[in-house]
Amino acid sequence: MCGIVGYIGKKQAAPVLLDGLSKLEYRGYDSAGVAVLNPAGGIDIVKAKGRLKVLSDAIDGGKKLKGTCGIGHTRWATHGEPSENNAHPHCNDEKTIVAVHNGIIENYAELKAKLIRRGYGFYSQTDTEVATKLVDYYYKKYNDPLQAISQFALRVRGSYALAVMYKDFPETVFAIRKDSPMIIGVEKGESFLASDVPAILKYTKNVYYVDNLQIAKLEIGGVKFYNLDRDEVKNELVEITWDAEAAEKGGYEHFMLKEIHEQPRVITDTFNYVYKNGEIDFSEVGLSDGILKYVKGIVIVGCGSAYHAGMVMQYVTEDLARVPVRVELASEYRYRNPVTNGELVIVISQSGETADSLAALRSAKEKGLKTLAIVNVLGSSIAREADFVFYTKAGPEISVATTKAYSAQLVAGYLLAIKLASVRGTITQDYCKTLLDELCSLPEKVAALLENKHLIQKFASETMDKKDVFFVGRGTDYAACIEGSLKLKEISYIHSEAYAAGELKHGTISLIENGTLVFGVLTQPDLIEKTVSNLVETQSRGALTAAIATEGVKLPDVGFEKVFSIPHTDVHFTTSLAAIPMQLFAYYLSVLRGNDVDKPRNLAKSVTVE
Ligand code: G6P
Q: Is 605 part of the annotated catalytic residue set?
């Protein structure tokens, strides 16, 4: 989950590397470092513990490092504590080979033992130092930089995006990836390397997505690609359609707030991706009506918020299309031995690189099941490996806590459910049209909710000292609660739990104390009374209760501290509206508590390790 960058061109490399790393800090931010080939032919390495700013200050924004070829890294620690010593780049003893790495070398202990037997010493606890010294070992053996990297790839187990510089090849950056993302950009003779597009968008929109086990050689004037046999191979240049501003804060204090406000646009764009001439057209997704009509069941897998979007999709799809749907955590699915029956497996992922989701996808394919990816990042591993891809149109999401990508996933899920229902004849054409009209009006309803954000801000300021916050609901409201609770805990660091309202009394209600805040999400007309009864049970134990409810629906008068209204929509889509006040509540609490909203402690946005 670290971020890597590389540059070779006519500019001074260090400022370009720092700039790129600043766009990748969402991937990890406990330490950072850069290495630049200096004009005297040596390699300068500077590393610092803490945020990128510490590194940037140490090299005066990059001015202190001279040279036009370099690599950089921002770290999310896996092997070894965050420290200057463990920070990347790592180098061999002679400082003639340096490398940065994202991923995990699973057999690093065995490789380290082998290298120690060959006389190598180690200064850090990282698997990356082992990787670097393994490259060094093969370079000394074969005297060929490409062969050293291909031998490395043959010897190593795990995932990696690795960038290497050799002192002997002063105008070149070599790179290879396996199951960790890496893209390469080119523009007028300059070459850029990064874990993700936003890092280089300022400089170029011409991008290569590096294939698994493909070696890239970046030089002034262009990039060449090789397979592990060192035969040159072709790679397709792709033009990125979003611009650099999409990855900037655009006047908002935090990326999260900007991304929350982008949700009306994101919902519209995701809807329009498949809504053509008044109906849902999945030709771009590649899914035929035949598959949807005869599929025996659906299994949805994902991690974190993507899993939560899958939960909503389960309720909505079963209700509308009458297809059996199971939703599972990708980390569990991959190690289970499920009984399969020709299901369609749907993998939901913003990044398209989450290690567990990718492994779940591969395991489904091995079982002979058809797979559909609902993915945000173009060209990501999950998108490339799935049989069919529905691209959510959230654009680059930078804040670690997802908001707009989750909203886009919900809309993709609704559209798939409606399409399934219409193909299978479980809803009338009239109701199908009503649902599509409703989806069309969701963006303006989200926009209306955002207009009233000050109400949530005020409530957040009144409740900022709470130690525990519960969210309860039934049906899709329960699925909405799980996401609301995750949002709150990940950025405010307040303890929070989400419960199916009826389940609370089976144990967890013992945690309710005087003043505990309990939110009820009440958007499902048939279930409101039931959930309100559960909320009253918490009130009897001293809880302060608040409700998120559809406007115009009369709630029993039980003394809610606050009621936040959401506009009316079809019952299947209410999560898209209920999510907004919960996102804002988490956001404002995080701000009020002085936290780093966009980069919460211990987290990373793209979890490319198990
Ligand atoms: C991380 C992020 C979450 C995200 C999850 C799955 O934990 O912090 O926000 O929901 O990974 O990521 P994906 O990219 O697969 O949607």
A: yes
